[in-house]
Amino acid sequence: MNEAVKEMKNFDVNKVREDFPVLSQEVNGKPLRYLDNAASSQVPTLVIERGAEYLQKEHSNVHRGVHYLSQKATTEYEAAREKVRKFINAKEAAECIFVKGCTDGVNLVANGYGRKFIGEGDEIILSQMEHHSNIVPWQMLAEDVGAKIRVIPMNEAGELIMDEYENMLNERTKMVAVSHISNALGTVLPVKEIIETAHKFGVPVLVDGAQAVPHQRVDVQDLDADFYTFSGHKMFAPTGSGVLYGKREFLEKMRPYQGGGSMIRTVSFDKTTYAPIPEKFEAGTPSIAPAIGLGAAIDYLNSIDLDAAFAYEHELLEYATEKLSALENVKIVGTAKDKASVVSFIIEGVHPHDIGTILDQEGIAIRAGHHCAQPVMDFYEVPATARMSLAFYNTKEDVDTLVNAIQKVIDVFA
Predict the structure, then answer these.
(1) Marked catalytic residue, from 372, 374, 382, 407
(2) Which of 251, 286, 302 is the last residue of a domain?
(3) Are 298 and 85 in contact (CB under 8 A)?
(4) pTM as predicted
(5) What's the angle, vertex CA 261, arms to CA 258 and CA 266, rounded to 5?
(6) The domain containing residue 384 runs over which residues?
(7) How many Å apart are CA 317 and CA 154, to the nearest integer?
């Protein structure tokens, strides 16, 4: 028995499900089957109770107060930053900037780094399978400064054509920004290879890790990522939480994304000097409760056998792929060899919104639409897909219920 199978067999999904109170409810008189984790994962009791404890006993502003509550809130807020550092193996906590989410992190880099170091005639490389949040900020920058967007193409399986990427890099390339895992296809991109190749040309790389951090171990030092950003609400934490990791050498030479309180050292009407990182990029009152909740989510993840959880989730992905592939009139969109957590599909003659609506009546939550990845939909010449996305608290029973409901959809429209 190989190690992955051993780990998977050691994982008790029913015990884990008890940690997530939302999963015990009914929807439309049916047990909830929550399969929309790529949009937002559910929150365990530990995180819910930690948020309530902060609001009940610790709520205050951070960093500037000398009274007990402010000092307590500051201690917990900065403790959450250290938990993030350890979780992604950043070199130091100061390299971990709290942001509202992955979108906020990309915008911070596009503005703070891009507007200072990218100019007319320069090139920014993205991949064809990017989420809109890793396209639009770079387009806005390119339009303002006269830079050019170049796109790494993909094949029919939903895999990047790496030879094309290597040919794109040149002396005009100033940034590469790619997803770690595609939210629309589940493809795991070869980000370590992408980073190594870019660094040969001295080009920094930003990785959108929103879909990766909840589904596999991420080591930013091993990847050698210059920037890595992710959202808390996809990794069992509250909305409004997230992190931008950046190497100190880049963060220190970047412009602040926003101005205001907390991010300054001195202010006069003649000149302002900025605080050191991370405060330099955290203007105003931060999202304190969500950040502490993110720290609690990391505590939760550290309390379970993550390797076993990830092995179980991958086995469940393979099971779901096999079951859906066996249905007539169902086509899976995105069949890369290396995938995680997501199965997107279409049913011949049925709009994905109709699929989602009918499944909801069966208590099944999936996502239907373009998934903020319209270039992916354009590539496959479809307006939208239905997307099932897994977390380690999902079960084969969830998948079987989904498959049976999809068969009902096929029968209705046939």
Answers:
(1) 372
(2) 302
(3) no
(4) 0.95
(5) 100
(6) 3-31+305-413
(7) 22
